[in-house]
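Hi, here's the filled form for the chain we discussed.

Project: internal
Contact: R.S.
Residues: 145
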Amino acid sequence: MRKIIHLFRRIPSVLSFFINNIKELQSMNIVRNNKLYLVLISIIIGVAIILATMPLAAQAKPLIPTDANGPEIEIQTSSAQEHYNKGLQYKDKGLKYEDKAVYEFRKAAQLFCVIGNDSKFQMAKTQLCSLEPDDAECAKKNCTE
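And the returned structure, exactly as it came back:
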């Protein structure tokens, strides 16, 4: 917040600098009177845009490009498979662990859907629906719904 206040305090000095330079350009007949206002307005708009985008630049996160077959998809696939396997383990343990199994199958179905693996989504959905038929995932026929 202090930086923003400091920037706003400096605006008059920055604008006066530009105005003085424009007056010098005008005295050398580089900028005529009718164009002076256009130059001033464009400078003010430029300063406003720069000040408006500063908070956005501070919040920006660096983008790391990933290949379509990159490590991100492999991680999601293995994570989805782990959730599915955990769900099977919890299902085999009995009624005491049924809630955990439902959670793991639901998570696996969501991850398989994100990846776009419809056959594994159907497997996870089948397991989920066998434990909890009223679940929202059971109503879906495929990932796109």
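Let me know if anything looks off before we file it.
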